[in-house]
Amino acid sequence: MKITAEQLRALQLKQVEALIEIDRVCRQHNLRYYLAYGTLLGALRHKGFIPWDDDLDIMMPRKNYEMLLQNGPQWIGEGFFLQNYRTTPECSCQITELRVDGTVMKQRSSQSLNMHHGVFIDILPMDYISSNLFKRSVDRFVLRALMTMCYAKFGSYPTKNPLFALMGKLLSTLFSMRTLRNMTEKLSMKYEKKPTGMVCAPLSPYALCTATKDVLSEDFFGEPTEVEFEGHSFYAPNNPDAILRQIYGEYMQFPPEEKRKPTHHIVELLTELNPKTSSSCSS
Question: Which end of the chain is more exposed for a tag (fewer CB within 10 A), N or C?
Answer without folding.
Answer: N
